Amino acid sequence: xxxxxxxxxxxxxxxxxxxxxxxxxxxxxxxxxxxxxxxxxxxxxxxxxxxxxxxxxxxxxxxxxxxxxxxxxxxxxxxxxxxxxxxxxxxxxxxxxxxxxxxxxxxxxxxxxxxxxxxxxxxxxxxxxxxxxxxxxxxxxxxxxxxxxxxxxxxxxxxxxxxxxxxxxxxxxxxxxxxxxxxxxxxxxxxxxxxxxxxxxxxxxxxxxxxxxxxxxxxxxxxxxxxxxxxxxxxxxxxxxxxxxxxxxxxxxxxxxxxxxxxxxxxxxxxxxxxxxxxxxxxxxxxxxxxxxxxxxxxxxxxxxxxxxxxxxxxxxxxxxxxxxxxxxxxxxxxxxxxxxxxxxxxxxxxxxxxxxxxxxxxxxxxxxxxxxxxxxxxxxxxxxxxxxxxxxxxxxxxxxxxxxxxxxxxxxxxxxxxxxxxxxxxxxxxxxxxxxxxxxxxxxxxxxxxxxxxxxxxxxxxxxxxxxxxxxxxx
Length: 476
Fold this sequence. Notes:
Elements: E1 4-9, E2 13-18, E3 27-32, E4 35-38, E5 58-59, E6 67-68, H1 71-91, H2 97-112, H3 136-152, H4 162-175, E7 177-180, E8 187-192, E9 200-201, E10 207-212, E11 215-220, E12 231-232, H5 241-252, H6 259-262, H7 267-270, H8 283-305, H9 309-323, H10 332-347, H11 351-368, H12 374-389, H13 393-410, H14 416-437, H15 439-452
Parallel strand pairs: 9-12
Antiparallel strand pairs: 1-2, 3-11, 4-8, 5-6, 7-8, 10-11
Enzyme class: transferase
Domain SET: 2-235
Catalytic activity: L-lysyl(4)-[histone H3] + 3 S-adenosyl-L-methionine = N(6),N(6),N(6)-trimethyl-L-lysyl(4)-[histone H3] + 3 S-adenosyl-L-homocysteine + 3 H(+)
């Protein structure tokens, strides 16, 4: 941790600053979790040791709750699972993920003390719990968790006061970090990373966080000067400044005063009307189209949640047909429609449509996001794959190269998804050379290949935006 130092950040309390100069893609520090658990909803589909998604997992023969890839993963996870296993058996069931995480944290601290490694910069006692800032309904759920924790916590384990237990619950409530699967594409669990808790928020940050081979990496998004504060964004920049401030206040208990919030930077673009030949729609037209979009987004989300993807396509098309002539290509509701339609059409294997809307989505994102934003990189990757699948190899290759350049900064060369993208990039380059030599031969060979090996079905679209946009876990 020689690259960073704790300091008093004006208006924010403790923070971390750089003790040397960094450039885009530099790893400032990496950190293993103090403890981590799989989400309740994915307990049977994700390995509880390596957090990989597997079709067939082996269940723990004792507690019947924990699942593992194989004996190797089970042995690797036994140190953390040993006391948990006995507690689940005695309790009669597995408690929720918050209770399981608090228990794992406390068992580890009881065994190893408040500082569990040489790189740990802070103790749990020093971290904020924000219990006094909680709303009444949140506090009620909080107290239920503590009550259930006391029933779950074994009598044979070291006993702790309610204040100590409450503090740990409070810390994970506002500092729990989302743990992703091995590809980095889906949030599958939650963990606590003490050093990461010291990194403050900025809506236009100079760092990003990624999980890579079981550790989080804090990576620089651009040049960072020695002595400069290190920041990450706790919420998605695609939200309007007022919405970001609301989320940060209700979820993380602070008022954001960053330049982008104070100046409402890019809010005008996110709600803009489409200008054609110097003529803009009226404010009334933009408001009407925005309201209609919002209404259709609610219907679309409901249809997607029910798995009715043809209905999703129908709703998106109706909305786009009515609002696309009025709303700018940076309007965040229109961008959501394009994003959803491209994802669902790819799943239904209408690749030409998927490519068209993915391209529009990326073009809009490029005007709003930081050039090295991970969400932009993932969107460009998706668009590149859609164009490749549609046989539009020139645009596909360009999008894949753009995505690769961004992910080399945000994820680094050793991350599994960057390696996959590099393989795609080389394949697309080879096909592009073939295409430029003879378009007819290229398309003939492509058609023959697809007849012998049809396109595999895409992953089913998720009902909520996953992982990459929401760094920190919050109980819903």
